[in-house]
Write a structure and sequence with these properties.
10-stranded mixed β-sheet, 7 helices, 253 residues, single chain, 3-stranded antiparallel β-sheet, 23% strand
Length: 253
């Protein structure tokens, strides 16, 4: 199943990605699928990101619409280069939500893909107090986590903000991460559902499920998340390296 089909994207979508363990990979997959389906796709962030493997336009908010007319989608766009970025050689800063919504509403792109938080290349995270920065007009929100976090200790090597995960799950930093740990965070208003607009379709994704064992573990994560909330009724088990995209439905759906 294509990711765009699994997420239920239509002719117009503003898709915000949050979490860790595959946001940019999922965004690239949607950019490819959308282009193949004839949609104009935009790729950006409300925080910071390394420049994606797409044509990149760097411009200010005032000139943003005109700048996008000068390029053919798919296109990545940002407001400025980041001086002395951490952990990578190059990084760009994105935009506040308001100009991004204008880009979509005025028809410059059909699908706008937004990286709405950072994860410092970890496999799993819980958001900080000032994130994620999800546009109020987001039609879809995709909380992401990597199945590779299961079985690892709740610590900085694997988890961004382990203390926040501990607070949500009543674990202690250093405890072993279980499928229930990730599922609880995904379903929490302080975790995967933080700052999600009421009208957005939420579809959690458990990524890097490269083997049958990983897929079973990822399914267990989603089954627990689905038991913890009624805010979403399905999730996806994915491995973008292996072209895996498997839906997991709530028993009540």
């Amino acid at each position: 199943m294509e990711l765009s089909t699994a997420l239920g994207l239509g002719d117009r979508a503003l898709v915000a990605f949050v979490g860790a363990g595959g946001k940019k990979t999922a965004m690239h997959r949607l950019a490819t699928e959308g282009t193949e389906q004839g949609y104009g796709v935009g790729f950006t962030t409300t925080t910071q990101m390394p420049p994606p493997d797409l044509p990149l336009t760097v411009t200010n908010a005032e000139r943003l619409p005109d700048a996008l007319l000068e390029v053919e989608p798919p296109v990545a766009f940002a407001s400025e280069w980041v001086a002395d970025p951490e952990r990578v050689d190059r990084k760009v800063r994105g935009f506040d939500p308001e100009p991004l919504t204008s880009v979509l509403d005025r028809g410059f792109v059909d699908w706008l893909l937004v990286k709405a938080d950072g994860a410092r290349r970890r496999e799993f995270k819980a958001p900080g107090t000032d994130e994620p920065v999800v546009p109020d007009e987001a039609t879809h929100v995709v909380p992401v986590a990597s199945v590779h976090a299961v079985g690892e200790p709740l610590a900085e090597a694997v988890v961004h903000r382990p203390e926040r995960v501990a607070a949500i799950t009543d674990l202690s930093v250093g405890d072993t991460i279980t499928p229930e740990t990730i599922g609880t965070v995904l379903a929490s208003p302080d975790g995967g559902l933080r700052h999600v607009p009421d009208t957005a379709v939420v579809t959690p994704v458990i990524n890097k499920a490269d083997t049958p064992d990983h897929q079973e573990t990822a399914r267990a994560v989603l089954e627990h998340a689905l038991e913890e909330t009624t805010r979403f009724t399905r999730g996806l088990v994915t491995s973008f390296d292996r072209d895996v995209c498997l839906p997991v439905e709530s028993e009540s759906s």
